[in-house]
Amino acid sequence: MEAQFSQVMLQLEQASQIVMAPPNLVSNEQRHLAEQVFLDFKASRSPYPTCKFLLENSQLDYVLFQAASAIKDAVVREWSLLDGSDVRALRNYLLQYVTQKTDLQGYVREQVLQAVAVIFKRGTLESDETDHEQLMTDVTSLIGSGNLSMQSTACSILLALMNEYSTTSRASSIGLSWEFHLNAKRRFEGRDLKLVFQLCLQVLQELEKYTEEPSRDVVSLFNKFLSITEQVLSWRFMAYNLPGRFVLVIENSQSCALMPGPAWRDVLLDAGLVDFFFRIHEKVRSVGEMAHHSLQCLAQLASLRGSIFRTDEDRVDYLNTYLQSYLKLMSRSDLAEHELLGVATIINRLALFFPVAFFASLPADVGESLKVALMKLTCSFCQRAMQQQAVSALEG
Fold first, then answer.
1. Ramachandran quadrant class, 304 (left: phi over 0; alpha: psi -120 to 50; beta: rest)
2. Do residues 208 and 279 touch, judged by C-beta distance below 8 A?
3. Measured in whole angstroms, how far is the alpha carbon of residue 244 from the centre of its chain?
4. How many other β-carbons are positioned within 10 Å of the β-carbon of residue 349?
């Protein structure tokens, strides 16, 4: 059997070299035949043992990528023929593979983890809670390991899950109806999304503790978790009684309020959460990409609304808490160019999603401080705009 696997690997590696070769070295016909080799392989029945052999033995990244892709396609195609224990073993193998192969190319790792996410999603509505809890337990363990490589793997798993579940229109094609994707998203939203957010907060708390310049790899890791946090806060939460045709309208809207249900009260209405995100922004504001993610998180928190609030008084309290931290940011005299749009977006969303009456109900000192801060910020923006216009005129 191993000789047969080796023969398949040789054939795929030869085809890979042709596919990846510069156009001037191979003909279109050669490239087409090589691509067909991969298509035939991915369409083969039960390719799992062969794919495992390839993942363990091939030295070519493209072959590893195609092996992971073949597993993903085959599981979807043969789902009804697979025993639950076989699916579980395959998913565990893929997770173990990416945690042990720390030198994988990024695109290979992402493809393996996409296969894990698709397997996880395909079983969303039928697998028992034990299978589901095991994956989330594994992710939690990886994050808590303190090992940078393991934490990066956990980040990639969460990102793959978020990408797979976040919309019903851009999920992987797994041969099931739109209603399946809709119900799977609802299940993930109600069962897992809050945990994903809490895991991200756990990592970001470690970022806040840093007192010295972190390494490039550490910055990259924190940036990824901050990006996932932004994705959670930008989640288009489902209304269970909303007609299906309106779901796509919500998902495709460019700007959507943060509207989680009452189950999120203990997290999002925590007294220290908003200030925590402002402290995180203070920590990363000099790093352009991270500052963008932190400001987007703050802008989404500025749009919080819906049944998460019990009363209007709760909304006023939240607005008051938010503004006290926001005023500290606005008072800075050294706001960078890349911060200006985010700072302006925050007040725009507060004004959009909180009625004027709520602003009028704020403590007098907060309301007065907000007026002064907005006046100063507006003057600062106008001054910068005039300076830029003057520079442009000189250069022109």
1. beta
2. yes
3. 24
4. 20
Dump pLDDT digits (tens) for 346-372.
Answer: 999 999 999 999 999 999 999 999 999
Which of these, 275, 369, 296, 378, lies nearest to 339 by C-alpha position?
296
Quote the CA–CA distance of 284 and 352 in Å, as a whole number: 27
Which residues touch 138 (CB under 8 Å, ≥6 apart)?
95
Mean of pLDDT values over 102-119? 92
Q: How far is CA 217 from the centre of its chain?
A: 18
Give the three-state DSSP class for 290.
Answer: helix
pLDDT at 172: 58
236-264 as b/e: b if 16+ CB within 10 A: bbbeeeeeeeebeeebeeeeebbbbeeeb
Closest to 70 measured CA to CA, from 109, 35, 40, 34: 40
Helices (H), 124-215: 129-144, 148-165, 178-191, 193-209
361 CB-contact burial (10 Å; exposed 0-12 / middle 13-18 / buried 19+): middle
Q: Which of 211, 222, 324 is nearest to 274 (CA)?
A: 324
Q: What is the CA radius of gyration of the chain?
A: 25
190-199, 241-250, 256-265, 330-339: least confident range: 241-250
Q: Looking up tokens 């000789």, which residue turns up? A: 3
Neighbours of 103 (CB within 10 A): 6
